[in-house]
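Listing S7. Sequence submitted for prediction.
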Amino acid sequence: MRVGVIGCGYWGAKHLRVLTQIPDVDLVVAIDRREDQLKQLQQQFPGVLCVSELDEALDLVDAAIVATPPRTHGPIAKRLLAAGKHVLVEKPMTASTAEALELIALAEAGGLTLMTGHTFAYNAAVIALRDLVASGELGSIYYLDSARLNLGLYQPDVNVVWDLAPHDISIINTVLDAEPTSVTAFGSKHAGSPFEDVAYLRLDYGTIGATANLHVSWLHPSKVRQTTVVGSQRMAVYDDMLDEGRLRIYDKGVQAQPTNDGAVPMTYRYGGIVSPHIAFTEPLMSEDKHFVECIRTGARPKTDGYAGLAVVRVLEAANESIQTGRTVELLEVTKA
């Protein structure tokens, strides 16, 4: 297997490191137009072949990972698929739903693997939370609440929704094993930014009767990376900022106790807190290994093109809702 990485900045360099550690990958090619970056990568990864243009690498690779700025994802991935290459595209997969659908069609027509880099879907704590929800241990899911907050980094070409929300949308879709049916969003601009730097999203999962509330911000005094799942029996919190105990299960709940006079007093349950042991595996390593394995076996990736499309649809709908002040309905997509 010969794999190229297009765009070798902060995240692309991480892919290079991981790929050099996968035994099934025989050749890793770094593709970046910044000569200084290539020189640094050559010193850091002596076994990696470094080239400045995609044209130089097309005949050298079987597959490629696209880690360039989001607006370029679609055009680069389209070119790779047209050349018969398997592709993993970083999040968000494309800048529009139309682009995402085009990539899916190209991959299906060519019998190629198309995967989206939703790294949190390969995070052991998120997988444990998904399994917890699926087991019914939390009861019926009432709602999810997620916060991804920090001071910066302001992006020059997209708002905070397109920058931060892809992570949380993919986490929630993974945990619920479902896609939202409607999106409502509100955003605001501060500090002179031309784009929204604070936003709130509400995702309705009508097919399972749950909702999710997302808060994303570039303008917050502390770094927060937290997802809460509230069920009828128990509650769970995934906190990615903790070194240990990232997933905690709270045996807490509230139950209505109707009386003959029509009153509805509430009964509160306060139980213990459990933090299950979760063996750590690097999510990016799991993701890239999965990409290579899917290419070898022809299996459908866990985060395939449709998973990427689902996130892009929510991002587009959120932008539309911010601009119009209305809830945007999402029609079901028929998968091949």
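Caption to Listing S7: primary sequence and predicted structure tokens for the chain studied. The mean pLDDT is 95. Residues 305-324 form the longest helix (20 residues).
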